[in-house]
Amino acid sequence: MKNYPAEPFRIKVVEMMKTMSREEREAAMIEAGYNTFLVKSEDVYIDLLTDSGTTAMSDKQWAGMMIGDEAYAGSRNFLHLDATVKEYYGFKHMVPTHQGRGAENLLSRLKIKQGDIIPGNMYFTTTRYHQEANGGIFKDVIIDEAHDSQSEHPFKGNIDLRKLQALIDEFGAEKIPYVCLAVTVNLAGGQPVSMQNIREVSALCKKHKIDIFFDATRCVENAYFIKKREEGYRNVSIKEILQEMMSYGDGCTMSGKKDCMVNIGGFLAMNDDELFARVKELVVVFEGMPSYGGMAGRDMEAMAIGIKESVVYAYIAHRVEQVAYLGDRLMEAGVPIVRPVGGHAVFLDARLFLPHLTQDQLPAQTLAAHLYIESGVRSMERGIVSAGRDKKTGDHHRPKLELVRLTIPRRVYTYAHMDVVADAVIDLYHHRDEITGLEFVYEPPMLRFFNARFKPIEAK
Question: In angstroms, rounded to a whole number, what is the distance separating the alpha carbons of residues 98 and 280?
Answer without folding.
Answer: 14
